[in-house]
């Protein structure tokens, strides 16, 4: 959603913007082309993506600082970049095309590969295969249900544990896809592979995507200068719910139970919501890039200090 991002972040009127999920650099390139003076602090936890983005953005190398880090470390990254505040922050969440199309990273069941799923393969984080080996049947079912919204989560978890206890644990994408397909009947005309939700759930769990999101938004808002803007693109309902509620809290919405006589949650109005309803991709963009069909953009603007 490059056009929508440019519209909400207004890079021509900004000095410094953080691209917290650089990926292949598409959004950063669009923002740099929109302003001859803008500087970008670029973050990504995938070192391969950073190297590819550097090649793409070579013409703007004097205006981009690159950091191999998790977006949850945005405070430390901004400090290392020599800044105490920034004018804009963008986060394009979820999995990148680079990762999804990799034949070796284990994100997709289109390729038979080791079940890794780490967005930072250089880290010591637990892989998806190790997660399947460690978690109990109940914990596995909870992960698959919560992060994948898979109603057959218990049956899938039971099959995974049964196979593990037989001495033949699930270790590759092909093995997991076949196991889930055997546990979940595919409805006639259903274009979604039965393993899609399970793969999504494991990826989210491995990379702690939901766990770190609320803290990232709070940190981002604290780093914005007065009038600075935060834009977040999500790709599934769990992410969108966290982003929506986090921005609402920052906008001063009370989340106390309705029967409370007065607010005790201590919400303060730090931002103004710019997108009462999420912005979605145009039909033209969806036709050109079908993976964008579930994208939702939400944004807020930092208020002036009182």
CATH top level class name of the largest domain: Alpha Beta
CATH fold descriptor of the largest domain:
Rossmann fold
- The spatial strand order of the largest sheet comes to 3-2-1-4-5-7-6
Q: Helix count?
A: 13
Could you give the order of the helices and strands? HEHEHEHEHHHHHHHEHEHE
Average pLDDT reading: 92
CATH homolog superfamily of the largest domain: Vaccinia Virus protein VP39
Describe the fold and architecture.
By secondary structure, this protein is an alpha/beta fold. The chain has two domains: 2-94 and 210-302, 3-Layer(aba) Sandwich (Rossmann fold), CATH 3.40.50.150; 101-207, DNA polymerase, domain 1. The protein is 41% helix and 14% strand. It has helices at 2-9, 26-34, 47-56, 74-80, 97-100, 128-134, 137-148, 153-165, 173-183, 196-207, 213-223, 237-250, 283-288; strands at 16-19, 39-44, 64-68, 86-92, 224-234, 271-273, 296-302. Strands 3-2-1-4-5-7-6 form a seven-stranded mixed sheet, sandwiched between helices. Strand 1, helix 2 and strand 2 (39-44) form a beta-alpha-beta unit. Helix 1 (2-9) packs across helix 2 and helix 7 runs antiparallel to helix 8 (153-165). 42% of the residues are buried.
């Amino acid at each position: 959603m490059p056009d929508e991002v440019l519209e909400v972040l207004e890079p021509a009127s900004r000095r410094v913007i953080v691209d917290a999920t650089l990926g292949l650099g598409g959004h950063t390139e669009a923002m740099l082309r929109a302003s001859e003076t803008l500087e970008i602090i670029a973050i990504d936890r995938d070192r391969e993506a950073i190297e590819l983005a550097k090649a793409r953005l070579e013409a703007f190398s004097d205006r981009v600082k690159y950091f191999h880090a998790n977006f949850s470390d945005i405070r430390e990254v901004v400090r290392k970049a020599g800044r105490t505040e920034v004018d804009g922050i963008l986060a394009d969440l979820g999995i990148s095309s680079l990762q999804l199309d990799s034949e070796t990273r284990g994100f997709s069941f289109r390729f038979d590969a080791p079940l890794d799923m780490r967005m930072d393969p250089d880290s010591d984080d637990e892989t998806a295969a190790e997660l399947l080996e460690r978690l109990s049947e109940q914990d596995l079912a909870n992960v698959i249900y919560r992060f994948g919204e898979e109603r057959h989560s218990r049956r899938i978890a039971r099959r995974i544990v049964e196979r593990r206890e037989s001495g033949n644990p699930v270790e590759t994408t092909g093995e997991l896809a076949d196991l889930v397909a055997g546990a979940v009947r595919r409805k006639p005309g259903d274009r979604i592979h039965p393993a899609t939700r399970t793969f999504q759930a494991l990826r989210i769990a491995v990379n702690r995507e939901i766990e770190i999101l609320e803290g990232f938004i709070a940190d981002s808002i604290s780093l914005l200068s007065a009038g600075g803007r935060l834009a977040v693109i999500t790709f599934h309902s769990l992410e969108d719910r966290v982003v929506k509620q986090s921005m609402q809290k920052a906008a001063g919405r009370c989340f106390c139970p309705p029967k409370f006589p007065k607010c005790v949650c201590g919400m303060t109005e730090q931002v103004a919501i710019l997108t009462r309803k999420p912005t979605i991709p145009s039909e033209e963009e969806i036709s050109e890039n079908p993976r964008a069909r579930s994208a939702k953009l939400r944004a807020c603007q930092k208020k002036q200090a009182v």
